[in-house]
Amino acid sequence: MKSREQEYKEIFIAEALEYYDALNRHISTLEKQPDDDQTLAEVFRLLHNLKANSKAIGYLHISDVSHKLETAFSLIRSKELAFSDEVVTVLFDGVDLLGELITNIDNNEETEPDPVLLRNLDIIVENLSESTIELAKVQKYNTTKALSLSDLVYIQIKKLDHMMNLVGELMIDRDRILSISKGTDNDELKSVSSHLYRITEDLQYSVMDARLVNIGSLFNKFPRIVRDIAAAEKKEVDLKLSGQDIQIDRNILQIMTDSLLHLVRNAVTHGLELPGEREKKGKPRTGQLRLSAQSDRENVLIELSDDGNGMDIKQIKRTAVERQLVTAEAAKGLADEEALTFLFEPGFSTAKEVTEYSGRGVGLDVVKNAVDSIGGRLTVHSEKGRGTTFTMLLPTSIAVKGALLFEVDEIFYAIPLIHTEQVVALDKDEIHEVGDVMVASLKGETVTVVYLHELLNADETDMRLGDKSRLKGQVQNIVVVSYNNRKLGLIVDKLYRQQDIVVKPLSKPLDRIDLYGGVTLLGTGKVCLVLDVPATTRYFIYKRQG
């Protein structure tokens, strides 16, 4: 993986070379149309940006030459300097020097600018005397200079999206061909299909890699944001960033930008206390805010932690009961992690509640929906008086998902691995009926389980989701999924394998069925429904409440 500095340098070089080409074009235009104010303004803008960018990244020679050229064009715009042939020659040479400095950045020894050229530029921008013309004549243009192009290109995201869709189609046909080849004695077909599999896999990862960006491109915007919010709130906040080198799909980062901004703003505004209040609690005056990213297999884990007020779990339960989201009796038995899931209900926390966590829930449903839309997971952990942590588990790619394949009632299904906690086989006797549901003990934790066939086919008059007698056979295959701090065991008929799938949206009017996130085609040519875990979990809760 590239370092952050290397990626920034590559981006700078690619952009600087574009500026260099544009400057050459614009100066040629100005030779013919010296009074073209729009072109003059564009040249000035390009030089100003190049000066600022090169100074920020530490290339001071480039910054110095850009500054001299910027000053010269400023004088030309203000009519203090005539755009004469002699001046044009010096300016062209100055732009050529910029090109040389940019293309030689990777050399161990930094290229020194030509002192005669720098002297001419200084005369142009400082003396404005007749000596300008005399000195300009000593410039020598190298006819032996080679033309060069950048090793980097900019490409529109929509073009990469299109490529990813084509790769997805190719993967579906690849799996089909591989399946056909396994059922024949044709060695040549088997060899070609095996090679096709490897090539397609390489192509898939190449396209996915081209879409990756460093998460620092988003994280590095937050120090200024936090500073501004903290100043407005009269709070002292120390923001710690880590994991800026972690890479993620650019589209996913774009979708999550507003959500992360919302969480950061909430943390500073509602999570962290005022300096005086923190001192009374024995805390440092300065609140700590930590934004981190790390790789987790095929996913990226983003965490936002503060050491502020934390959530008042008792108040959350009271509000949930008041809003009829849960009965008073059921609320008493809720674990803290489960109670926190109410924060993601639409408009759960409003300014009307004068509580310590007032405002922390506003808009969290929007954040949750954004995470769900890309197949990610959002969880929250909090301790009253000690702080809150929001954790987002995001896929590195949207188009291709790792999934678990299984069968229920002779229908093929897939569940994205990002929502899959574990897969277990239990004896029927290890599953117990408690009230209106079935439960099982998994790794010391009591988890509610449901036969997926019954859940998907239950009608309004048949709510017996906890009827153990309906289970087939003695051994039960259970896929444990997790959503919104809740775990649910889905009993399925047959388990198959894990594989990467390309999810296709359902056609109208089937796209209205919330339980399915789309479909994919298996190598056998059979259609496989992709289960939407958030929707399935919500549907189960709705069915329980009857």
From TrEMBL:
Pfam families: CheW, H-kinase_dim, HATPase_c, Hpt
NADP recorded as keyword: no
Ranges where the HPt domain occurs: 1-105
EC numbers, comma separated: 2.7.13.3
Domain spans labelled CheW-like: 400-542
SUPFAM superfamilies associated with the record: ATPase domain of HSP90 chaperone/DNA topoisomerase II/histidine kinase, CheW-like, Histidine-containing phosphotransfer domain, HPT domain, Homodimeric domain of signal transducing histidine kinase
Keyword Transmembrane: no
Keywords of this entry: ATP-binding, Chemotaxis, Kinase, Nucleotide-binding, Phosphoprotein, Transferase, Two-component regulatory system
Reaction(s) catalysed by this chain's protein: ATP + protein L-histidine = ADP + protein N-phospho-L-histidine
Role description: Involved in the transmission of sensory signals from the chemoreceptors to the flagellar motors. CheA is autophosphorylated; it can transfer its phosphate group to either CheB or CheY.
Record-given protein name: Chemotaxis protein CheA
Organism: Pontibacter saemangeumensis
